[in-house]
Prior knowledge:
Layout: H1 11-40, H2 46-56, H3 63-79, E1 83-84, E2 93-94, H4 96-113, H5 118-130, H6 139-152, H7 157-169, H8 174-187, H9 192-208, H10 216-232, H11 237-248, E3 256-257, E4 259-264, E5 268-277, E6 284-288, E7 291-293, E8 299-300, E9 307-313, H12 317-322, E10 325-332, E11 335-342, E12 347-349, E13 354-355, H13 365-368, H14 370-390, H15 395-409, H16 414-427, H17 432-441
Antiparallel strand pairs: 1-2, 3-13, 4-5, 5-9, 6-7, 6-10, 8-9, 10-11, 11-12
Helix pairs in contact: 1-2, 2-3, 4-5, 5-7, 6-7, 8-9, 9-11, 10-11, 10-14, 11-15, 14-15, 15-16, 16-17
Amino acid sequence: MHGVAKVALDEFQRRDEETKRKKKIEVYLNIRDKIFSKTQNGSFDLDGLRYTAELLSKNPDIYSLWNYRKRTLSKLKENHCPHTDYAENDQKKSSFDNLCKRELELTETCLQKNPKSYGAWHHRFWVISRCIDKINIDFKCEVKRCDALLFLDGRNFHCWDYWRLLCNFFDVSTYDRLIYTKSKIDYNFSNYSAWHCRANLLLNDIKAKNYRQINVETYKFESKLVLEGIFTDVRDQSAFFYKIWLLNLIDSRRRDLSITKVDVEDDSLTIYFNDHVNIKSDSIVFRVGNDYRSNFDWKAEDGSRCFKIWTCKSNDALLMRDSDTFEINWLVQNRNLEFHMNRNRIITGSRDFVPVNEIGCTVTEELTANDELRECVRSELGILSQLVEMDPNEKWPLLIYTLALQKVDREVNKDRIISGLEKLKTIDPIRMRYYDYLRNDLGFLN
Length: 446
C-alpha cells in the first residue's frame, strides 16, 4: 500500500511465508479443479456453493467462481423447491429466499475483504435484481450499507455504481437522489464522485424534460452550493470542475434563426432549421405559383416539442416536388420570413432573420430564460472577482471568472476575457494550447 514501509524478513520468516503461500495455492487449485469439473459435468449444486464460498471469502476477485454461483442459483430457482442448507452437518431445511440471504451475507463478507471487488458488487446486485422478490428487499438497509462504505472512501465508484443501480431498480426519484448526493457533498466538498453523480442526475433531468439548458432556479441553487465549496478550499479542484460544468450548460450563443434545408418527398415535407424550434400548424405557408398551402400537421423528428427537424405528411408535396421553384413564408413573432427554393433545393432567403433570443413562440422555456441565466452569472462576477483577488496566481478562480465573463457577454467583456486567458497561459503553461483553443473558439483569434 502507499505510504507503508516494507518490513525486511529474515530467512525463517521468508520460509514460513512461502509455506503459507504454497498451502493457499494448493487449496485454491483443489477447489478450482472441483468447480471446473462440476461445470463440465453440468453439476450445479449446494456442494459447489460451499466450495466456492470458502474460496471467495478469502479472494473475492475470482470471476469464474461468481459465475458458477449464478448458474447454480438460477438452476435452484427454476426448481421452485426447498433446499438443504449448504453448511456442513446442517440438516435444517431452508427456503430459496434464505439461500439468497446467505448469498448477500457472502458478498458482504467479500466486500469487507475488498470494498472495490468488481465481482462481489456485481453479484450482490444480480442476487437482488434476479433472485429475491422486490417486496422482500430493504432498500433503506442497502443504502445504509452504501453509506458505511462511502464513509470510509467517498470516491468508491463501485459503491456509487451499486447505489445508482439500486435507485434505478427501486424507481427512486431524481429529487431524492439529489438529496443523497448533497448529503455526501455537505460531508466532504472534495467528493468528486458525488459532484459527478449530481451532474449526471441534473443532465438526465434536463434531457427528460426536452430542455436544452439548465432551469434558472436550479442553476441558482447549484451555483450557491458549489460556491460554498469553492470558498471552503480555493485550491480544491472538484468544486471548480462542477462550476465549469454549470457554466457550460448555459447557451451563450446569439444566433439568427433560419431554414437551412427542405426535403420534398412524394407525400412528405421535411424542414431543417439551424436551431431548436416549435412549429405551429398555421405558422408556415408554402406558395407554388399563386397556390398557397398551410395548416400542416408538423411533427418533430425526435417526438419532442422543440427540435431542429420537422416533418409533415401532405399530398401537396408532389406539387412542390415537380415545380421549378416554390416559396416558404414563415410567420415568426409577427415577422414574415421568406425563403425561395429552386429545383436544386438551394435556399435564397431574406436576410431579415430573427434572433433566436427574440422568438418567444418558437423556443422552449429554458431558451427564453437565457437572459435570466446570464443575469445570474452577472450577479456572481463580484464574488468570482474577489476569489481572483484573494490569490491572483491561482488558476482555478481566474479560469472560472474568465468563463463567466464569456457567458455574460463575450463582446462587451472581450478585453477582460483575452487578458484572463493570456494570464492563465503564464500561470499554467502546460495547458497553453487549451487556453489558445478557448480564445479561438470564442472568435478572438490571436
